[in-house]
Structures
1.
Amino acid sequence: MIIAFISVNHTLVKDGKGIALLSSASLHAICPFGGVVTIYQYATTGTFVKKLHESSFILMILMFILAVGFGPLFCGWICPFGTLQEVISKIGKKIFKRKHNNFMPYKYDKYLRFLRYLILIRVAYMTAATGNIIFSQADPYYALFNFWTSEASILAIAILMIIALASLFIERPWCKYACPYGAALGITNLFRIFKIKRNSSTCLNCGACNEVCPMNIKISREENVRNHQCISCMKCTSEEVCPVKYTVSMSLERVKSYES
């Protein structure tokens, strides 16, 4: 809601309306991914990519510190575009039941999940080379909060509509296959401090954790979830879906069996 308010207000101020005090605030200024793509220019010249602000750089640092500690919490708890996909997916679940989020064949899915890293590399390189935010021309996140303005390109709006439609069949399709910021944060799952762990000695192998995972991670096959696609949504934990207390949880140490 805050992001939507800032985006709408930024547009209204241009027409002489809105809250002038917040006129300089824009979606670029509060986008942590903006901090990622401006790293090269900041390191080499001490300046930011055009339209970006120091605030996006600070947000990037804060989000990475949080991710190193607890994983991509931004993706699982903060990102409004992720929330939109989940809301649409709820409709898809009612229509397709258990088939929902299982349409994509594994033989394609396992390769498509690395596509977002190619997008991340491409966006970072082109932004560093041109000094401009090139990704906004194809960014559905940007289009979501600017589709009523001339700033949102037709391509970005088209991608937004495709992602919205795909969310009826696949949960978080943008997050799984294309989000460059999710790709950057996902790397922290390899070395994050607090990990999602499964206690194999108390696990019933019921598969409840697998079914609820929006990213289709097979939690029941892991003891330490280090998958680069984990978004730390905590849906698989004993507090949410696992029927055995302390079997799946986020912790610093190895998960211990619960003793009554």
Note: The mean pLDDT is 85.
2.
Amino acid sequence: MFQLLKTFVTVYETRNFTQAAQQLFLSQPTISLQIKKLEDQLQTGLFLRSGKQEIRPTKEADFFYPRALQILSNWEDTSARLKEKENFREHCTIACSHTCGVYFVPAIVADLVQQHPHVDFSLQLMNSEAVVHQLEQNKADIGFIEKAVRSEALTQKAVYHDQLVLAGDPHSAYWLLRENDSGLRLANENHLKRHNLTPHLIQVNNNELLLSLLRQGVGQAIISKLSLRDDLAWQGLPEENQRYFYLMTPKEQFRDIIKHILTSIDGYLAEKTTEQGVAKT
């Protein structure tokens, strides 16, 4: 059964039998046979075939996908517990957008490792859209992002009130923009439109690189005040100078350790509400 679930998940994510076969080191006929066997067991169609390569998941497949991920995750967790017994260690993967990951999450993790010494934490840095994608595919347990994102599979909670500032050389003809899915991209684009600015644009897909360019006198950009250093000139913004950081989690969470970690995060944020401006929830 678990092999059938792995095959289903891979086909669902790739939308392609050939690619699924390559990832699972199986033949394409074997992939097709396993999907057909799973469909027979569930008594429902999971994919619509529209040619040799193109397939589309049915609404039943959309419903089944997150549940299949949870079944596989629970099985892996249970298997690890039985094998390791007394030496078993839990694991928790936290996916973070760039500003959250560098300037906000480390203090939270420092608190978590003290409260949960039996947990192996893994931190992954990516843009906000990628964080959501990792959570939806059950490849991360907890996410922190810099912009509101709708997802039927995830819960979203504002946890920090972030202040935005305009940093860099105010006379520069260049403007630094993050990639399309970055949380700061929209704030910069709105500012340029609002003030009818048409600077030369420099695309940057990493926040630390953007900050290094600003410190070298290359351009200007709207950034989080959390990322400011003493050697970087900046000024306040009169409007739209605030945003929220968001905590994202799957709606269906079955692992007890993740529930305990989320309780610890809530406790930490509650303690820091006054001194750090954390949003009340």
Note: The two ends are 41 Å apart (CA to CA).
3.
Amino acid sequence: MEAGIVGLPNVGKSTLFNALTSSQGAESANYPFCTIEPNEGIVPVPDPRLDIISSHITTQKVIPAILKLVDIAGIVKGASEGEGLGNKFLSHIREVDAILQVVRCFEDDDVIHVSGKVDPIDDIEIIEAELMLADIQTLENALNKAERTARSGDKEAKATVEVVQKCLTHLGEDKPLRSLGLYESEIKYVHSYGLLTLKPVLYVANVAEDDLAGEAELVQRVRQYAAEVNAGVVHVCARLEAEIAELDEEDQQEMLESVGLAEPSLASLAREAYSTLGLQSYFTAGEKEVRAWTVPIGATAPQAAGVIHTDFERGFIRAEVFSLDDLVELGSEKEIRTAGRLRVEGKAYEIRDGDICHFLFNV
């Protein structure tokens, strides 16, 4: 699972990506299309529960969950018609599972805005319009093919035609597909098209260094818009986060304290992106490592075991599960077992966020 960072040129998305991945390259010039090929990075997802577990279970190392990010070149108005590097940008977005849209919520005369003014809602609507136009093109092409097949009496094709027409009607009302509320039984007919506005979105408000709390009017407008379309919002100061990312741990803490932050804002961004992708963590804990494993919300115990190794899923017998609360209260896994608080779960069990698991299998 991966998220793509998108935005208009010069909103700070590459600065944000570099800060997230701590991969500082040469400074890019202050003009559109400075990122041509998407950059990819792996970002740890900060989780204080790992520290709590390792304080009760002695271990050699602690491994957090990770998130894959793709920095996609800036989109411009007309991308769906090939403006700028439009088609290439859109194809890169098509490959990711969620969209992190960076919107500029700061004024700076030295950083040129591609539209000539700072208006985050206008930025959001430009990109949303381009993604909707691209989806319309995709669906119209798909409809022609599905209708031809449906004439032969093919039931799958007939169902596809119905869902595609439903999607086109919604897009025709200037509404993204994520707000249509398609059932899983409907999504399967359009899943292969890689529809852009069906992907979940998280808005990232890039704020000025004098608005680290994200209280400025521009940010409030983004929050209001996001609430109306049922999307999440996080605010970060990409420039400051890039500076913090370059420091060692001790200097980072000193700088955070000096600006009144408990942790880098990138930590909350990583967690929100993780959630936007529909992901959750469960843990394994032992002498060698305490580790967070990533699974989709709703994953069953065998599916969760398969993330560790395919043999674990293939030969799944049962899962032994306890909670972080049990560990904090009783102090050790041994005491949890003694108290009868260790749960034995079978193949139908759906993993809960924060479960601490042992899997028994036989192949």
Note: Confidence is low (pLDDT under 50) at residues 23-36.
